[in-house]
Every structure is written in structure tokens, then in C-alpha cells.
Amino acid sequence: xxxxxxxxxxxxxxxxxxxxxxxxxxxxxxxxxxxxxxxxxxxxxxxxxxxxxxxxxxxxxxxxxxxxxxxxxxxxxxxxxxxxxxxxxxxxxxxxxxxxxxxxxxxxxxxxxxxxxxxxxxxxxxxxxx
Length: 130
Prior knowledge:
By secondary structure, the protein is an alpha+beta fold. It has 2 helices and 7 strands; from the N terminus they run βββαββββα. The chain starts with a strand and ends in a 5-residue tail after the last helix.
């Protein structure tokens, strides 16, 4: 994976196909809205629908997930983009540390999720918060 440009204050990395499509994607973003450890599952699905998803479906929720320096609530979801109807599966976690909160997202095309998920989950597990 290579670092890619993203929104101000975020860090993103991705691996692309030869044609420029995503194979894997990682992003870390500071807390930006009303997301909390408690409301994260519903918040994430609604955020996807507002931003770029034609549909989004919650597949799994884990609460009290331990991160280096904090605790998180994580969801696995899948969604279809409004443009080009790309189908993605993602692991998205809201993580609270001692001095702040952030979101880490790891995604891949749903067809590639079985092969990409192990690498992406290791990256999320290594995420450190402050």
C-alpha cells in the first residue's frame, strides 16, 4: 500500500489495480461529528448513505475493542457506491484515546474482502491512539 492524498488532517493509504481501481484502502480521520462509542454502528451506516453509498448494510458490531492507547467500537459493513455501483466491505472503528477520538477505516472490494481482510485487520489492530 502507498500513501495517497486525502482530506486535511487525515492519513490514507491504498493499493490499486493496474486499471486504477481500489484493491485495499486504509484511512485514519480525527473525530469530526457526533460519533461516539455507543452510537457508532448507526452513525457509520448513516454517514455512508449521506456521503457516497446508494445502500449500506451493517454486518457485525464489536464493542470494547482494545487498541494501543484506547478503546473502540468497530463495525463490519458493506455498501454499494452511488457512482459506478462499486461494492465494498469495510471494517470501520471509532476509537477513543486518553486525549481524543478518531476513526480508522479499512476497506476492499467485496469480491476481494476474503483475501484482503487479514492484511487490513492487522493494520487496524496496530492502530495507536492518544
